[in-house]
């Protein structure tokens, strides 16, 4: 009887170790983070995650998404009712170009341009935490309705 329990314990430990690299992925440069973000398959994100992009978001940004989800009535959309990484509800980013980051200590500002039925320019604020870079805010300063995630969350209060 002890052999099946031992096998089960070993299997669980091995499964946890195999899942660890994906959850603990660190990006040593802002460019590496953003390139990974734009090539990420969001179906790999756990359903319980606060955002489809939680593996790339800072603790603070994930907490804001989680707080929003916790205060949103079931069946309603939250404050962020679009995909901020493509700046829309539909489509996909093509011809992605990551600009040269401006780094100051543990923060960075980076411009990302791409096509999603029209040219889009997003401005990323990154922070260094847990040994790598994470997205702390995203902003689109173009068009009739400029936005940033932080401003949208602040306006929802």
Task: Furnish the topology, listing elements before pairings.
Elements: H1 2-23, H2 30-38, H3 59-70, E1 94-98, E2 102-104, E3 107-115, E4 119-129, E5 132-140, E6 147-148, H4 149-155
Antiparallel strand pairs: 1-3, 2-3, 3-4, 4-5, 5-6
Q: What does this protein look like?
A:
The protein has 157 residues and is of the alpha+beta class. It is built from four helices and six strands; from the N terminus they run αααββββββα. Strands 1, 2, 3, 4, 5 and 6 form a six-stranded antiparallel β-sheet that branches. Residues 1-24 have low confidence and may be disordered.
Describe the global form.
globular
Poorly predicted tracts of residues: 1-24
% residues in beta strands: 15-25%
Q: Please tally the β strands and state the result.
A: 6
Structural class: alpha+beta
Helix coverage percent: 25-40%
What is the alpha-carbon Rg in Å? 18 Å
Average pLDDT, all residues: 86
Q: Could you state the order of secondary-structure elements as H and E? A: HHHEEEEEEH
End-to-end separation in angstroms reads: 56 Å
Q: Figure out the total of helices.
A: 4
Summarize the biggest pleated sheet: 6 strands, antiparallel
What oligomeric state do these chains adopt? single chain
Question: Keywords for this structure?
Answer:
157 residues; alpha+beta; 6 strands; globular; disordered N terminus
Quick recap of the structure?
This protein is an alpha+beta fold and 157 residues long.
């Amino acid at each position: 009887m002890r052999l099946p329990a031992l096998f089960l314990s070993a299997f669980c430990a091995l499964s946890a170790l195999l899942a660890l690299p994906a959850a603990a992925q660190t990006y040593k440069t802002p460019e590496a983070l953003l390139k990974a973000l734009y090539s990420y398959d969001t179906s790999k994100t756990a359903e319980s995650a606060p955002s489809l992009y939680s593996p790339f978001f800072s603790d603070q940004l994930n907490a804001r998404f989680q707080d929003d989800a916790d205060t949103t009535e079931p069946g309603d959309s939250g404050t962020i009712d679009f995909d901020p990484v493509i700046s829309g509800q539909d489509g996909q980013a093509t011809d992605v170009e990551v600009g040269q980051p401006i780094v100051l200590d543990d923060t960075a500002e980076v411009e990302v341009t791409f096509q999603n039925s029209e040219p889009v320019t997003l401005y990323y604020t990154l922070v260094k935490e847990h040994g790598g870079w994470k997205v702390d805010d995203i902003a689109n300063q173009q068009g009739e309705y400029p936005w940033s995630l932080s401003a949208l969350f602040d306006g929802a209060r």
